[in-house]
Design goal:
The chain has 464 residues and is α/β, with parallel strands linked by helices. The protein is built from 11 helices and 14 strands. A 7-stranded parallel sheet has the order 5-6-4-8-10-11-12, sandwiched between helices.
């Protein structure tokens, strides 16, 4: 890269940039005032398949160097290494009196006495997001206006011999996952099985142990595939899917475009069928290196899902939700309304439960969060079921879990080319979504319905 740049660019530009001798390997820090890694550019030249990172010498301005490079017609792009952040409404930084984790948790809420479950499972009293939105003739379960009918989907998959989306692999690009114990500092979440994971990678610390240091990634992974029937905590959607932990966010929920692109490519190369991305770049930021990796994932047949971002953290639907072939997800509440954090824009494809306070026009005031077992604040070995995880991070995880269930359901023609398979999964999610009566820029196709998405279809009629 350095030799090519010296060949293509005039000496004055090279002198201005003061290129370092070797390509940059990762962000050495985050320029919080600008939202990008210091002394780094992501650059692609004509003829290259995708861009690379280059380091800049001391005192060289990132924006100035990018502008200088873009003046050359042989430079396809030159952009800062922008920073993404986790898309959950920010929890309190520290709870001095965290509620203890109870392995026999009943699923009840403080001050609410649960009624008999009628065989529905104790999880049902906490996980409103998984319930059907209207009474069913079978099951005798509670209902929730904001639910996606996971029990109906579970029945469908059991009938087809793929319970819990067995045989699928979902990569969780996030802050890591509490997937194993390590020494005295890390413990595996008690609601994950030890054989539930396939090897992942840590692109923050550059090792093969993508362990969570914030809790965000563990919470997201829990919604996708937490265990069921184990007497611990709550449950996940695709509870027999394999999870691939790929750490691209640090303990503060921040990660750069270079690491994220590497994470997408890792997941694609190592057999992921779905990639969940519960993070966002700032509004309007171009991340072509990430877009290239997303396009490669699409061509390889990987379904990619991303949070749309949260009002307050972002001001518009932003990358990677706006990336090529990505399913962008907004957030809904227990009352089946949009969350007051959910953004509107052309990048919204679907909405899914994110919990929290509804927008003003909602007739329901129900505002519970999304409950999953995850790390307690400032701990890597103590777990709880916190009541502050809200946002489109949580919503994206629901869509990823249901996408894995659709792949396992037999509703997708196995002879389809990889890219076509992605298109059909996305179409089935859209066609079976529940219309909330909102503009498409707010709800996309509507609220996902797991039971309908995994239900009976004409035999591949739409898969041409």
């Amino acid at each position: 890269m350095r030799r090519l740049l010296r060949t293509l660019l005039p000496p004055a530009t090279i002198a201005c940039m003061a290129l370092v001798a070797a390509p940059a390997q990762g962000a050495s820090g985050i320029a919080t005032a600008h939202g990008f890694a210091p002394r780094q550019l992501l650059v692609k030249l004509e003829g290259q398949r995708h861009g690379q990172a280059i380091g800049l010498g001391p005192g060289v301005g990132v924006r100035e160097a990018a502008r200088a490079l873009r003046r050359n017609p042989k430079v396809v792009y030159a952009v800062p290494n922008y920073i993404a952040s986790a898309s959950a409404v920010t929890p309190p930084p520290y709870d001095p009196n965290p509620s203890p984790f109870d392995p026999n948790d009943t699923g009840s809420l403080a001050g609410v006495a649960p009624e008999p479950s009628s065989g529905s499972g104790d999880w049902a009293y906490k996980q409103w997001n998984f319930l059907a939105h209207e009474a069913s003739e079978v099951g005798g379960m509670p209902v929730s206006p904001g639910g996606i009918d996971a029990p109906g989907a579970w029945r469908n998959l059991i009938e087809r011999g793929r319970p819990g989306a067995a045989g699928t692999v979902v990569a969780v690009l996030d802050s890591g996952v509490a997937y194993r114990s390590l020494g005295t500092g890390f413990r595996r979440s008690p609601d994950f099985g030890p054989r539930q994971f396939v090897p992942g990678y840590d692109f923050v610390d550059h090792d093969r142990l993508p362990l969570d240091e914030s809790g965000h990634g563990t919470h997201v992974a829990g919604t996708i595939a937490e265990k069921t029937g184990n007497g611990v905590g709550v449950t996940g959607l695709a509870y027999r899917a394999k999870l691939m932990p790929v750490r691209v966010l640090d303990r503060n929920g921040l990660g750069d475009a270079l690491d994220i692109a590497k994470g997408i490519r890792f997941a694609t190369r190592h057999g992921a069928q779905v990639i969940n991305m519960s993070f966002n770049f700032d509004c309007g930021k171009e991340v072509p290196l990430v877009d290239e990796a997303l396009h490669e994932a699409f061509e390889a047949g990987v379904v990619t899902v991303a949070s749309a971002g949260n009002l307050g953290s972002e001001s518009c639907v932003s990358a990677p939700a706006t990336g090529p072939r990505v399913i962008g997800v907004g957030g809904t509440t227990e009352g089946g309304c949009l969350g007051n954090y959910s953004l509107a824009g052309r990048g919204i494809d679907l909405v899914a439960p994110g919990g929290g306070v509804p927008q003003d026009r909602c007739p329901s005031v129900a505002a519970r969060p999304i409950y999953q077992v995850t790390l307690q604040p400032k701990s890597t070995k103590e777990f709880g079921i916190p009541a502050y995880y809200v946002g489109t991070s949580m919503a994206a995880a629901h869509v990823s879990g249901v996408a894995a269930m659709v792949l396992a359901s037999g509703a997708i023609n196995p002879v389809l080319p990889p890219a076509k398979r992605v298109e059909v999964v996305a179409r089935k999610l859209r066609q079976t979504a529940r219309d909330l009566g909102l503009p498409r820029t707010q709800q996309g196709a509507g609220l996902i319905d797991a039971a309908k998405a995994t239900g009976t279809f004409p035999v591949f009629v739409d898969d041409r």
